[in-house]
Amino acid sequence: MSIKYELIVYWSEEEQAFVVEVPELPGCMADGSSYEEAIANAQRVIEDWIDTAQRLGRPIPEPKGRLMYA
């Protein structure tokens, strides 16, 4: 699956891990001990998020690309 959602990646001192947030998919987050692992985990979580939404008949947001923040 080609992931086209925006990912926000940052280091969490508290968790001692890289954290990935997917702002377009509510509650969709992942982490990993390396940047690469966090991104790979995020891809799996996005796929699971979409699969669950489809199974429950919920709408799946279209990827918008880069989001603008104030």
Automatic annotation (TrEMBL):
Domain HicB-like antitoxin of toxin-antitoxin system, by residue range, is 12-64
Q: Name one Pfam family in it.
A: HicB_lk_antitox
Known PANTHER family for this protein? ANTITOXIN HICB, UPF0150 PROTEIN SSL0259
| The protein, known as | HicB-like antitoxin of toxin-antitoxin system domain-containing protein
Species this protein is from:
Thioalkalivibrio nitratireducens (strain DSM 14787 / UNIQEM 213 / ALEN2)
